[in-house]
Amino acid sequence: MTDLDQLTQSLARNLKRWRGERGFTLDQLAARAGVSRGMIIQIEQARTNPSVGTTVKLADALGVSITTLLDYEQGSQVRLVPAEQAVRLWSTDAGSATTLLVGTEARGPLELWSWRLMPGDGSRSDPHPEGTVELLHVTAGTLTLVVADTPYAVGAGTSATFEAHHPHAYRNEGTEPVELTMAVSIPPVR
């Protein structure tokens, strides 16, 4: 498969995914983007390579970056955000501060969890509905996050996000307790 074929397939898959996530019909997306319904059908069926301008219009109408729309990574996407990459939005001389740890482009119900895993403990999760995203921030210890059979070491101060429609697990393979905060974004029922 050529790079162009891979890009065409990725754009088709991602356009369908994000249109579904946003709950847009073909006609609604066409109206929002100023792109014909026929063009969107051709793109979603991987029968055409649209211009950059058309791709940007579609990304803007979906509220995602062009990078997100063109991303052709296969399998589970896990993004780790080390502490030094977190974004401090504001702080005061008294010591108050806010820090954006990790974000995602998802919508729907959102859950916030506090976890504590003792050494040797773990928890497996069945796949959630397509479009479910989990974000987590480890505050103590080192979490072993397993997504689609791939383990990731997530140390204290590191954040991560992943698509949770894959089997996943949380394990403490260390000698000290693991503490983390997790948010789960679930797509709305249509």
Give a written overview of the molecule:
With 190 residues, the chain is α+β, with helices and mostly antiparallel strands. The chain has five helices and eleven strands; from the N terminus they run αααααβββββββββββ. The strands form three sheets. It has a five-stranded antiparallel sheet with strand order 1-9-6-11-4, with no helix packed on it. β2 and β3 form a beta hairpin. α2 packs across α4. The longest helix has 20 residues. The protein is elongated.
Question: Key terms for this structure?
Answer:
alpha+beta; 190 residues; four-stranded antiparallel sheet; elongated
Share in β-strands: 25-35%
| Count of discrete alpha- or pi-helical segments spanning 4 or more residues | 5
> What helical percentage do the residues reach?
25-40%
Radius of gyration from the alpha-carbon trace, in angstroms: 19 Å
Structural class: alpha+beta
Strand order of the largest sheet: 1-9-6-11-4
End-to-end separation: 35 Å
Order of helix and strand elements from N to C terminus? HHHHHEEEEEEEEEEE
The whole-number mean of residue pLDDT values reads 86
- What is the 3D form? elongated
The major beta sheet can be summarized as: 5 strands, antiparallel
Low-confidence stretches: none
Task: Report the strand count.
Answer: 11
